[in-house]
Amino acid sequence: MQVMKWSVIALAVAAGTSQMAVASSQSESKGFVEDSSFNIFNRVLYMNRDFKNGAANGASDSANPAGYREETGLGIRLLYESGFTQGTVGVGVDAHSLSSIKLDSGRGRYGTGQFAQTGDGRGDDTQTEVGGAVKFRVSDTVLKYGNQFVESPVFTTDDSRILPEVATGTLLTSNEIAGLELTAGRFTALSSQTGSYRDSINGRDSDTGLKNPGLTAANIVGASYSFTENFSGAIHASDVDDYFKKQYINLNYNLPLAEEQALNFDLNAYRTKDDGQKLAGDVDNKIWSLAVAYSLGAHKFTLAHQRSSGDSAYAYGIDGNGTIWLANSVQYSDFDRKDERSWQARYDLNMAQYGVPGLSFMTRYIYGDNIDTGVGEEGKEHEFNFETKYVIQEGPAKDLSFRLRSAIWRANSVQNAEYGADNNDFRLIIDYPLSVL
Hints:
437 residues; mainly beta; 18-stranded antiparallel β-barrel; 2 helices; 20 strands; signal; Porin_dom_sf
């Protein structure tokens, strides 16, 4: 792993020094106000998760469980990003306000992950979180400290509900060499998608299900490099205090075959090992996935295989609930249990070539087996997904999108006992981004 890391950096330095110097982002800065932006992002999410074996399986986190969860919420995000002041060192700020409004819920239907829970088992009517960060830029290197949204394979804030997670900490991102991006960061708090206070997310022991004290500190480093227009690689690592240490690699290769035809190969792999007080329990896992996609005009056909090995399942969550960049991490299941092997077949269709720009469809099927459940019987699971999305292309409602997501997840009895009840998961997501400034 270390050899590969330094090989990538050495190649990047050689490539960068062979190129003529170009203007940096900071030298082209127009100013704090002149380069600023203000956006309003609105999301409505209706979510229904029907547990087919009923309330006896604990379908709801609330009193009087109805055997399913059903809620609708509205999320409103105000996002301001300033430009950088001019000069050698540019200074700027980012600020956000995140608000949720409960449109529909109930004591028996609570638990889709959209709202905090009140003392009587209901979804909270409203919640608001505000935050900000200060940022500095020298040339093409940016240092940001404060509340921020993060997208790293080893630390990703999740955005699968009406509001995203928010991390607090420091992130350094450098793009000084063409094709090479270097990152380093330290995060000391993570707020959940339903928590409006600074450190509202807790990890969960993969074996016992017990909550732990929360994030103390997560240190991350990473490098990604585009070797050619069609071949790129990345290597990242993290150290989450008293939980685990994690390493990640990615290789992505696109092979053009003919006009409107191409093959894409995408390899992702993690190595995770418990550390310190082992607050996530005993963790010792290796997991990888390889996806091969064939594109033919408006059509794309994908086959993927994913395999987990070691003494535990893959562990994540305390380092962000989006920290699982694997092919078979899909709508409901991640197919990441101990010793699990899974296969996926997927089909995508872009209707733009048939005269309907903005309309797309996706369907996939994933099957997993060989799960070590610890009771002597092999665990098995499978999931079917169907998704359609339409984005308005022009006019006053430009970029307004409607997205339907449907998942059917089933497992045998021993896997149900470990992972949860069989269920059908249906979501309607309406996103409306508005650029004010």
